[in-house]
Structures are given as C-alpha cells and as structure tokens.
Amino acid sequence: MKWQGRRQSDNMEDRRGMSSGGKTIVGGGIIGIIILLLNIFGGENAQMITPVLEQFNNQSQTAPTEQRDLTPSEVEEGRFVNAILVDNEDTWQKIFQENNLQFEPAKLVLFSGQVSTACGGASSASGPFYCPGDKVIYMDMSFFEELRTKFGAQGGDFAVAYVIAHEYGHHIQTLLGTSSKMRQLQQGKSEKEANKLSVALELQADFYAGLWTHYNEKQRKFLEPGDIEEALSAAQAVGDDAIQRKMQGQVIPDSFTHGTSEQRMYWFQKGLQSGDIKQGNTFNTAL
C-alpha cells in the first residue's frame, strides 16, 4: 500500500525499547494463550480480561527499567503505523462531518512486552486492543509475526492497516455510544446471549475497517495489488472458528466472541463495497 508522505500525528506514542518497570505480567504458556484467545483484536474484551490479568498479578515480578534505541526497521515501522493512524483520523473526521457528528481522535501506543492501561495491565500475548477507558489503541508489533506464523495469515503491510482500522472502529463505537449500549444489553443475559452481542460489536468494527478502506482509497488511491487479499487473510485467520480449530481441535459456536472467519470477511467487504456507515448495523443483521 502507498503510505509515504503523510503528516505525522501527535496522537501516537512509541514506547518500544522501554520496559514499563514494576509488575510484569506472566504471559507465557497457557495463561498467554488464554489471554490471546480472549482478546485477539481486543475491543471491549480488553475490559473483560482485566480480572484475569489482576488474578495473575500476584505471580508477577519486578522488572528493572531499561531503555534501548530503536532499530532503523522499527523506526520505519513506527512511521508506517503513524501514517495509518493519520489516515484513520482524516477519514473518520470526514465521515463524522458528513453525518453532523462530533469527532474526537483516538490515541495509539506502541509497546513491547507489557503495558499498563485504564483497562488494566496487558502483555504482548493480549494482541492489539482498544481500551475505552482511556480511548487508546495498544499494539505490540510482534503480534503480526504470530498472526502469520501461528495463524496462517499472509502478512503484509495492509494486514497491519486492517488491524489498526478494526481497533479504530472500536473507538468509533465508543464515540457513538454503541459500546456502552452493548454492555447494558449484556447485563442479565446468559453467557451465550452476551457472546452474541460481543460478536456483533466485533463484526461492526470489521465493517468500519472496510468503510475506512473505501473512503481512504477514494481520497488517496492508496491501495496496491494484493492489499485487500492481505486484509481478508488476516480476518480469516482470526475468526473464532479458525482459532478454536487450531488451538483446541474443536469449534464451540456458543463461545464465539468475535465471529467466524466467514462473518469477519463478509462485514469487512460490506464496508469496503458500500461506503455507507448506515449499512453497518450488525446487531440487527445476520450473515
């Protein structure tokens, strides 16, 4: 994808190369896998896993504060992420203006290892996530290597762009009140019914990622051959059915929280093709 030449956003903070000090979450082994499965493309689930993380904070240890210079490739990677953040800011500002809505940009933090957020502590095993408590997207870039090697995604720069756009979609849901409304609807529901609402929220974030792609392509002509395929490959790799089949050898639909591979690809493509925010009501429409 074409991304060079963008302005740099002040809403990104690069904490890579620094340790957070203090408590280090034990994120390896089964614990890390559980957190990854619960929170891959985190969204609202970043809040749901906080009690899990706090439970294991008792097993944490104090790490010394360290800092190192970023490598040239990490610096370039940071510039790329910042460019995608800028594209999301500009695109959603335009969409909100068209719909007479007030826009507020999200912040994005790049980190390595572990990070403290308003939704609790998290490790790299959590995967990229958005915390509505501080309106920040948190990303450890090592996730994308795992996405390729462990979950079979193609990789590529647009796979990263898709993930950022998905997480930015959760920010849009926070601004529009969709997230808080979903949490209210989940109260008193069975786990199965609450999971269905979580799936709808995640699929809408995929729709918003497609919508962002539609608008950004129209404005900037930034897509290159193979980009959409990279996004669809990432969406397919992180479907609940694909993850469960790979990690536990069986699929349990009632436990889905993010949607199937087919659903995730469908809603991304619907946003991409329609370019109409009004067609993203995943709560009333089933695939």
TrEMBL record:
Q: Where in the cell is it found?
A: Membrane
The answer to whether UniProt assigns keyword Ion transport to this entry is: no
Membrane association type = Single-pass membrane protein
Any Pfam family = Zn_peptidase
Q: What is this protein called?
A: Neutral zinc metallopeptidase
InterPro entries for this protein: Uncharacterised_pept_Zn_put
Ranges of compositional bias, category Basic and acidic residues: 7-17
Q: Organism source for this protein?
A: Flavobacterium succinicans
Major subcellular location class? membrane
Protein keywords: Membrane, Transmembrane, Transmembrane helix
